[in-house]
Specification:
Elements (H helix, E strand, L loop, with lengths): L5 E7 L2 E6 L1 H15 L1 H7 L11 H29 L4 E7 L2 E6 L5 H27 L6 H21 L7 H14 L1 H26 L2 H27 L14 E3 L4 H11 L3 E6 L2 E7 H5 L20 E3 L4 H11 L3 E6 L2 E7 H14 L4
Parallel strand pairs: 2-3, 5-6, 8-9
Antiparallel strand pairs: 1-2, 3-4, 6-7, 9-10
Helix pairs in contact: 1-3, 3-4, 3-5, 4-5, 4-6, 6-7, 7-8, 8-12
């Protein structure tokens, strides 16, 4: 099982394809909904009077799974354009509300425009092809006609929904790329995120009035997704001219390799830090974090060696640029790193240090 509740299924074009546990929720929900409304759906596909070989519950499951296949194709249309543009793609994750491609930030409006349009375009092309086949399928087995009709509809909805000019939808990225040349990337992101929040509020209000909890969930996803995108751009801009020395804490919190997990916890509490370095003599042997210790019952820590819970040490230099360091934290899921100054251990850099330092600089207007 992958990190943060996702399973890695395999790799396509070198990109990990993952399924988040929330995907299981939507599979169960949509299977039940399609099964319950099957007669109505069959009539809309003009096969209501025919005898379908596949039972309603199986069609519910099959259409749901095929929908996520279509979502994966949509996401890999983004991935293909990104890779041709030299942009690193870390993963594609299928989750409750569709797919998410983890792609490095792109500061090229034309490339971002091409990447954003690729997904909806792929979905709309699939919708057109499938519907055209459906139109000439008179006399074909009703199960096949039913599947063609609803796969065309699914791709049409995916394509149109993603073209809404609202972050984090593809249409929001199209809007940002169009505005970036005149407003700059930061202001363009704020405008697109603001529009996205407006759409989210409208969708949420309609969901409340109509009793559509699924619409409320989508509205929350759009609202918080746009807000997260805006904050991420702010953080990256603030970090672009900083180094590790500007944010790390010049304080060593250490325990020897002979220490217990309880002693490491005590050292962190005393120093008010969430990471502790483990030393073998003067050599750095590992790093233990508060998150690591939180997984252990307090009563077991005295009898447990710190070496059994520590992780391999990650080291950075005070002169390292903050942006690639932050990217490394994201890619390797780091919570802290040891910092060296002139070859000597000088302190630690924690995720909280980065977030707190950047937020403070933004709040007081300190130059980056």
């Amino acid at each position: 099982m992958g990190s943060r509740g996702a399973w890695t299924l395999g790799h396509v074009s070198g990109v990990p394809v993952r399924i988040h546990f929330t995907w299981l929720i939507v599979v169960a929900y949509l299977t039940a909904v399609i099964s319950a409304q099957f007669q109505h759906l069959a009539a809309a596909a003009d096969v209501g009077g025919a005898t379908l070989l596949i039972p309603p519950w199986a069609w519910g499951l099959l259409l749901t799974l095929l929908m996520f296949v279509c979502v994966t194709v949509h996401e890999f249309a983004h991935v293909g354009v990104a890779q041709r543009g030299g942009v690193k793609v870390r993963s594609v994750t299928l989750m409750m509300l569709g797919g998410v491609s983890s792609i490095d930030d792109v500061d090229r409006p034309r490339l971002e425009l091409a990447m954003a349009l690729a997904g909806p375009l792929a979905s709309l092309i699939m919708a057109g092809v499938l519907y055209a086949i459906f139109r000439v399928s008179a006399g074909w087995p009703p199960d096949l006609r039913f599947g063609l009709f609803y796969l065309a509809e699914i791709n049409l909805v995916i394509g149109i929904f993603n073209l809404l000019p609202a972050f984090p939808m593809d249409g929001g990225r199209v809007l940002r790329s169009a505005l970036a040349g005149r407003l700059g990337r930061l202001r363009a992101t704020r405008v697109a995120a603001g529009i996205g929040k407006g759409f989210a509020l409208a969708i949420g209000l309609y969901g409340l009035l109509s009793g559509g909890w699924w619409l409320i969930l989508i509205a929350a996803f759009v609202y918080w997704g746009g807000d997260a995108e805006s904050r991420a751009i702010l953080i990256k801009q603030a970090a672009s001219r900083l180094k590790v020395r500007d944010l790390f804490v010049r304080r060593l919190v250490t325990v020897p390799v002979s220490a217990s997990a309880a002693e490491a916890a005590a050292a962190m509490l005393k120093a008010r830090r969430s990471a502790c370095l483990v030393l073998d003599g003067s050599a750095l042997s590992g790093l233990v974090s508060a998150d690591d210790l939180a997984q252990l019952p307090v009563r077991t820590r005295d009898g447990l060696s710190v070496t059994s819970v520590m992780r391999p040490p990650i080291e950075v230099s005070v002169d390292d640029e903050l942006t690639p360091t932050l990217r490394r934290f994201e890619e390797e899921r780091l919570v802290a790193a040891a910092v060296r100054d002139g070859g000597e251990l000088a302190g630690t850099l924690e995720l909280d240090d980065i977030a707190r330092g950047l937020a403070l600089r933004q709040r007081i207007g300190a130059p980056a």
